[in-house]
Amino acid sequence: MAPTKVTKICCIGAGYVGGPTCAVIALKCPHITVTIVDLNQSRIDAWNSPDFQLPIFEPGLEDVVRQCRDRNLFFSTDVDKGIRDAELIFVSVNTPTKKTGVGAGSAADLNNVERATRRIAAMSTTSKIVVEKSTVPCRTAESMRTILEANSKPNCRFDILSNPEFLAEGTAIADLYNPDRVLIGSLQTPEGLDACESLKGVYANWVPSEHILTVGLWSSELTKLAANAMLAQRISSINALSAICEATGANIDEVAHAVGTDSRLGPKFLKASVGFGGSCFQKDILNLVYLSESLHLNEVAKYWRGVVDMNEWQKRRFGQKVVKELFGTITGKRIAVLGFAFKADTGDTRESAAITLIRDFQSERALVNVYDPQVPQEQIWQDLQEASPSSSLDTIQKHVTVSPSAISALYKSMNKPAFVFDGRLVFGNTERERLANIGFKVISIGRGDSI
Ligand SMILES: NC(=O)c1ccc[n+]([C@@H]2O[C@H](COP(=O)([O-])OP(=O)(O)OC[C@H]3O[C@@H](n4cnc5c(N)ncnc54)[C@H](O)[C@@H]3O)[C@@H](O)[C@H]2O)c1
Ligand SMILES: O=c1ccn([C@@H]2O[C@H](COP(=O)(O)OP(=O)(O)O[C@H]3O[C@H](CO)[C@@H](O)[C@H](O)[C@H]3O)[C@@H](O)[C@H]2O)c(=O)[nH]1
Questions:
Q1: Both 306 and 336 in a single domain?
Q2: Given 142, 175, 207, which residue is the final one in a domain?
Q3: Are residues 330 and 359 both part of a single domain?
Q4: Closest Cα to residue 204, out of 54, 351, 393, 5?
Q5: Beta strands 73-76; 88-91: pairing state
Q6: Whole-complex ipTM
Q7: Engineered SS bond to 68: which of 26, 160, 164, 387, CB 3.0-4.6 Å?
Q8: Which keywords does this chain's UniProt record carry (predicted)?
Q9: Residue ID of nearest Cα to ligand 1 atom 18
């Protein structure tokens, strides 16, 4: 049998991955009808909103949705119909770290994946290619296949592929237009390889074939965890060195630049920071830690856990540095936190270092002003409450204000000496000097030479 030429795709999960990924597929493949389904009514309403107030902020996304929506791109809460009509289904649901039960704190919670898989089995009356897009532990595809096969109807076969997503938030559209690689894992059986060819045919509409890598299912699943673990490891390595720089007078930007010119290491992902955040790095490393522990590879688990431990230390260390520089106490002092999301160009606050920092400032009874144009106020309050479950919202709001602009942090209105703490190395030497000329004392992560 020849590989199916896909014309109808359904994506289960209309979040940061499902939304942009399938919107770009719709744009690049006008002959394919793409329906993105989700149980969350308000999210789907936002995707369908007449004024394109989309549920996530991502540069370039609105333009893609404007071009395709209601042409060959549809958003719906009718999950069952989406499943029934499709030839190929992406499962792009969230897989957060488990909060309770076996593996709590490190294992991935696969409940959403299982629910979606059971729904596919229950609703399908024709054969489907089912694609794992969510980040999952190694061998999850096997569990999905077992569930699908145990519940399938006659003449209905399911082929499972792994196709992890490597986009980064803030650059998702550019990453999807021009990916370093698309990775597809399949069983190495004739049917598995045919299914792989079908999915490859979708990406081949815009991705050069040498950038589409095909591997075995388990390698594909593990590659996603490995890639994130190794990226995060670079950040923890440079952050560990930033502490040495502060203590010795070396400059972390100079060290990172010089190290990164070694072609074996390369210049990217060497920016020291207040710590990595986002919904993926910590979750996926902990997922790898749990997998290693389950395989009784305790030294391997310990090795990867170190990357997360270093990140936690870096976040705490930055908060402690602020207290130390402000003469040992920040009680009653007003601190402006510019940026609440986990990085620039996104409104996503999951695991943002700003949350830990503000929680630590609150415990010192500082007065905090938060400014982030991409993050709605309600999200900030929700995150801060989750970070300090023993404090009421009233108590938090006595210490934290959400500012509509960054103006209130201007030098003239500040107590002197006025400090700027640069936790993302956004200020180079010129900007540092300019701030110092205004009168600010500038303290940057990874630099012993405050000015
Ligand atoms: N966010 C990223 O940058 C990124 C990048 C690569 C991979 N990933 C991985 O992709 C997956 C999705 O991440 P995300 O950030 O898009 O999550 P998200 O929370 O933004 O979106 C997931 C969506 O799935 C929906 N959902 C959950 N269970 C469902 C079900 N049974 N039926 C229908 N809808 C359901 C939720 O309502 C939610 O809207 C995760 O496994 C994540 O690790 C994320
Ligand atoms: O040199 C650097 C690079 C990043 N960061 C921080 O690391 C975090 C993660 O940044 P980034 O990787 O750019 O964003 P994510 O959207 O989390 O993307 C990561 O996680 C995704 C989800 O799995 C993967 O698909 C991407 O390939 C992977 O880069 C952010 O807090 C950044 O500020 C640094 O501190 N220093």
A1: yes
A2: 207
A3: yes
A4: 5
A5: unpaired
A6: 0.99
A7: 26
A8: NAD, Oxidoreductase
A9: 15
What does DSSP assign to residue 51?
Answer: T
Over its length of 451 residues, how does the chain's per-residue pLDDT go in tens digits?
688 899 999 999 999 999 999 999 999 999 999 999 999 999 999 999 999 999 999 999 999 999 999 999 999 999 999 999 999 999 999 999 999 999 999 999 999 999 999 999 999 999 999 999 999 999 999 999 999 999 989 889 999 999 999 999 999 999 999 999 999 999 999 999 999 999 999 999 999 999 999 999 999 999 999 999 999 999 999 999 999 999 999 999 999 999 999 999 999 999 999 999 999 999 999 999 999 999 999 999 999 999 999 999 999 999 999 999 999 999 999 999 999 999 999 999 999 999 999 999 999 999 999 999 999 999 999 999 999 999 999 999 999 999 888 766 578 888 899 999 999 999 999 999 999 999 999 999 999 876 6
73 within ligand 2 shell (Cβ under 6 A): no
Do 241 and 283 reside in the same domain of the chain?
Answer: yes
Q: Which of 10, 11, 16, 144 to mutate to test the pocket of ligand 1 (most atoms within 8 A of CB)?
A: 16
Whether 280 is catalytic: yes
Question: How close is the Cα of 9 to the center of ligand 2, in Å?
Answer: 28
In a domain, 274, yes or no: yes
Q: Are residues 302 and 411 in the same domain?
A: yes
Q: Determine the residue of 134, 276, 340, 374 to mutate for testing ligand 2's pocket, defined as the one with the most ligand atoms within 8 A of the Cβ atom.
A: 276
For ligand 1, atom 30, which residue shows the shortest CA distance? 116
The protein residue with its alpha carbon nearest to ligand 1, atom 7, reads: 165
Q: Would 218 be classed as within a structural domain?
A: no
* Domain containing residue 346: 226-444
**Nearest-CA neighbor of 282 among 238, 232, 239, 241?**
232
**Which residues are CB-contacts of 382 (< 8 A; sequence separation ≥ 6)?**
none
CATH number of the domain encompassing residue 363 = 3.40.50.720
Whether 215 maps to a domain, the answer reads no
- Strands 182-186, 334-338: pairing is unpaired
